Amino acid sequence: MSGRIFHAPFLTTNPGFKFKAVVERHEKKAGKRYPDVISYDSIDALLNDDEIELVIVNTPNDTHFDFTIKALNAGKHVLLEKPAAATSAEVKIMFDVARKANRHLMLYQNRRWDSGFLLVKEIIESGRLGELIEIHFRFDRYKRALSPKLFKEKAAAQANGLVYDLGPHLIDNVICLFGKPLSFKKTTGIYREGSEVADYFHYHLSYPNQLNVYLTSGLLLAGVLPGFAVHGTIGSFVKERCDVQEAQLDGGMLPIDKGYGIEPAGSDGKLVLMDMDNKRRVEWVPPPKGNYNGLFDAVYHTVRENALYPITEEHVAWQLELLEA
To answer: Are 131 and 251 in contact (CB under 8 A)?
Structure first.
């Protein structure tokens, strides 16, 4: 799913890339849509292809560390799906290997380019809310059935459960805005019948100037709450989490198609501002176009021009500290 939805459509439409090959051990699906793409039977075969400069590692979570090290040592740049690894110690090793190999290791955090997050970031950075007091980011879902992807559901597997699945998105959003928290408290729970791993989590992050940030996600949350809620001393902003890019890509739309990344009517965020007389003024703010291509542009500029990739090594290390706690 990751390759079909989040990677191949960009590798085939972004002029900075040529989609050369995939590894498919069993079913050969890629060629049905991309007939010019080579389907290798093994990772070694792909890594032995001298034309390939960049490898995307989007395999099960507990293989990320080994496969990334292997690709870096083969002289490839790596774009690595979240979560980067199971522990911050593994993350440090991977970046050390990347430096030794003189190759770039880049983490795939596409939710920085969600339309809703882009709008929230714009509102926060505008200063219109005053001094920030409280922020809530949520990913609410209702999925009673256990995932057929066993690496997500087995207690014995590394980097398992909802914490490592949706946690990287929410945590990275906050790190992107505010950096590393001064302190944090983490709560998890298991609620689905037969589940071995956490299917609920809540973080309370404390930042300077008494800013409190709350991150929440669960798989049995039927009443979906706004994905973004930001409160400051002179205003509040609330926005539903309804970025359309994943659904559009899943339905076959390409990033170059008209309408890609544009949220439907009624998706505006609600901005409430208080004036000097304590009267409320409400504005409805339309979201910008979502743009996962921004991440691939960043990958291109990092590899070709040695530009600083926006998800830094420090960002990844801080994220893993919270995930593994």
So the answer is: no
